[in-house]
Amino acid sequence: MNLVEQLAKQVGITEAQAKAGAGILLKYAEDKLGDQEFARLAQFIPGSADMMAAAPESGGLGSMLGGLASSFGGKAAELGGLASLADNFSKAGLSVDQIQEFVPVILSQVESKGGKEAADLLARVLKQ
User: Fold this and answer.
1) How far apart, in whole angstroms, are the C-alpha atoms of residue 47 and residue 25?
2) With helix as H, strand as E and coil as C, how does 70-85 read?
């Protein structure tokens, strides 16, 4: 089972939503890690370029931050840096709660294909 199928099944969403959500998180990781480090990780995530292409475009910092307090309530602290992705997840038809459900599935995929070191690198970014 590939990552998109696994996300769809475990999170209970469509494959299109899984692809877009994974793409959002991968773009976030690429922004935080830089191209070179991210390229090392992407080799362990088959289809990562397609997933990233499926991610909705960001509406800019202002629209991402606008209304965050009301969108998250007490969850903003739990999500950390991922809170900035709420706008994109919403555009993909996904809820804030689902952001947290994506992370362990993606980390498991990276660890199974690239080992603990690769998963730890990605975890540092996604769990900030």
Assistant:
1) 14
2) HHHHHHHHHHHHHHHH
Residue-wise pLDDT for 61-119, tens only, equals: 434 444 443 344 444 444 556 777 888 899 999 987 888 899 999 999 999 999 999 99
Kindly state the helix (H) or strand (E) to which residue 88 belongs, with its residue range.
Answer: helix 86-91
76-85 long-range contacts, Cβ below 8 Å, gap at least 24?
80/127, 80/128, 81/28, 81/32, 81/128, 82/25, 82/28, 82/126, 82/128, 84/28, 85/24, 85/25, 85/28
**pTM of this prediction?**
0.82
Domains of the chain by residue range: 3-56+79-126
